Give the backbone structure.
Amino acid sequence: MAGRVNLAQRVMDAAAAPIAEIGLELVDVELVREGQSVFLRLYIDKPGGVDLDDCTAVNHLVDPLIDQQLDIHAHDYLEVSSPGLERPLKTDRDFVRYQGEWVELTCYKALDGHKNFQGKLAPCSAEMICLEMEDGALSRFPRDRVARVRRMVRF
């Protein structure tokens, strides 16, 4: 799972603590080009999910921090959003928080003839991501072979 762009990491480092002080978690920061525009996106979360008021509060909190303290002007738009129900899991904290929940894991290259796996997230280590498969078997995936892990909504 690839590292974050330097500018996004600077925003993450500077904004995480002030956002935590208002009871929210800064989950991810990305700088992306969409058409002719560049978006600086901050993804926030809290138990029970975030609402428009949370996004507005974070926007008002970090906009001056980004413009004045960090002097970052590489974006056209600042967006604050929820990571969504099927959010990607990226940090060790994510892997602990979502243990026991259904996830989809995608590998860079096929393992045993498959690249995509679904199961309940089991306790992981620094080297392995573990899934309890539907049949109860425990499968282990080396982290350096995992491209993405994201939550799944199952009905």
